[in-house]
């Protein structure tokens, strides 16, 4: 029996695209230049990110997998049977696929901005789990409202929202709160949120995780300039910028920068941006939350029941939250 071809839909209107470009342009022209981290994940960027996850220095993926493996049964017992498993930022789906059998999932909903990857993920998932319905949605959820279109009604099928990898850390805290609130609203009575969150730790460890010896993260960061060139038709030269990762303890976040190595002028649509030597673009904030701070954020977002699971060193947390 051949598995059904998974349905893939895009919730990106022309207006969204316009707005995305406008925001990108605005960020690049601002006194402190910035690029939204979602542009890191074009096809090349996804491949580099997957390579990052296997680096010795990048502990989050490994540590989270350890927690999932260790507590799989305990967590699965607390999850609803026959759920729709909503995989937010699914990538290759590998993390989610480990769960589907344990919860008797009825439907898998893959959500990602990288459409090429999503199609492959759905196809391999449908092959591996022929009894589960696979659907995919190409979108980013920088706007919480988009979740409306992503999650089928909770009355119809109880949702498990799966948001691993500490991707929540890419949002500014206020935006993270609104996103968690939006998630909470979509859970109905019995839905659950399973989310991985990185913790603050020794600066050296944090900075090494975001500036590895092989330069994979540097390539990942500089690749964003190519994605921007494609989006805006601009003329960034990736060789003109150096990767830098710093832990900002005041804000409890790792910052990725692209530092201009020379004085240069970059053309952006009909405008141009001048960069002095040492001037930089912020490409990513990766917020780190202590157990207490993230528990507080979840309760502010309206979650009533919050469990968490950690590794021995407290280097990473997995939260299971219910309305
Ligand atoms: C995918 C957002 C969780 O912030 O650790 C990895 C992205 N950036 N190395 C992170 C990332 C640099 C990653 N997230």
TrEMBL record:
<keyword id="KW-0489">Methyltransferase</keyword>
<dbReference type="InterPro" id="IPR017804">
    <property type="entry name" value="MeTrfase_EgtD-like"/>
</dbReference>
<dbReference type="InterPro" id="IPR051128">
    <property type="entry name" value="EgtD_Methyltrsf_superfamily"/>
</dbReference>
<dbReference type="InterPro" id="IPR029063">
    <property type="entry name" value="SAM-dependent_MTases_sf"/>
</dbReference>
<dbReference type="GO" id="GO:0032259">
    <property type="term" value="P:methylation"/>
</dbReference>
<keyword id="KW-0808">Transferase</keyword>
<feature type="domain" description="Histidine-specific methyltransferase SAM-dependent">
    <location>
        <begin position="21"/>
        <end position="322"/>
    </location>
</feature>
<protein>
    <submittedName>
        <fullName>L-histidine N(Alpha)-methyltransferase</fullName>
        <ecNumber>2.1.1.44</ecNumber>
    </submittedName>
</protein>
<dbReference type="Pfam" id="PF10017">
    <property type="entry name" value="Methyltransf_33"/>
</dbReference>
<dbReference type="InterPro" id="IPR035094">
    <property type="entry name" value="EgtD"/>
</dbReference>
<dbReference type="InterPro" id="IPR019257">
    <property type="entry name" value="MeTrfase_dom"/>
</dbReference>
<dbReference type="GO" id="GO:0052706">
    <property type="term" value="F:L-histidine N(alpha)-methyltransferase activity"/>
</dbReference>
């Amino acid at each position: 029996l051949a598995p059904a071809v998974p349905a893939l839909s895009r919730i990106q209107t022309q207006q969204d695209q316009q707005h995305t470009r406008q925001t990108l342009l605005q960020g690049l022209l601002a006194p402190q230049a910035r690029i939204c981290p979602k542009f890191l994940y074009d096809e090349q960027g996804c491949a580099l990110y997957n390579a990052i996850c296997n680096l010795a220095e990048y502990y989050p993926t490994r540590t989270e997998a350890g927690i999932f493996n260790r507590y799989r049964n305990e967590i699965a017992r607390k999850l609803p049977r026959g759920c729709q498993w909503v995989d937010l930022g699914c990538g290759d789906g590998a993390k989610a696929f480990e769960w589907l059998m344990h919860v008797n999932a009825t439907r898998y909903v893959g959500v990602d901005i990288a459409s090429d990857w999503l199609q492959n993920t759905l196809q391999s998932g449908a092959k591996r789990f022929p009894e589960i319905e696979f659907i995919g949605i190409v979108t980013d959820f920088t706007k919480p409202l988009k979740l409306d279109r992503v999650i089928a009604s909770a009355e119809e099928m109880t949702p498990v929202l799966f948001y691993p990898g500490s991707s929540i850390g890419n949002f500014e805290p206020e935006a993270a709160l609104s996103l968690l609130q939006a998630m909470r609203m979509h859970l109905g009575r019995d839905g659950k949120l399973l989310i991985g969150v990185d913790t603050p730790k020794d600066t050296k460890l944090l900075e090494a995780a975001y500036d590895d010896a092989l330069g994979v993260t540097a390539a990942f960061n500089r690749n964003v300039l190519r994605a921007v060139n494609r989006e805006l038709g601009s003329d960034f030269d990736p060789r003109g910028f150096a990767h830098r990762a710093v832990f900002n303890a005041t804000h409890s976040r790792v910052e990725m920068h692209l530092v201009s190595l020379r004085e240069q002028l970059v053309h952006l649509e009909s405008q141009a941006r001048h960069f002095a030597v040492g001037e930089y673009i912020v490409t990513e904030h990766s917020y780190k939350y202590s157990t207490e701070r993230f528990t507080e954020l979840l309760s502010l977002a309206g979650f009533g029941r919050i469990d968490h699971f950690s590794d021995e060193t407290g280097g990473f947390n997995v939260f299971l939250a219910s309305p």
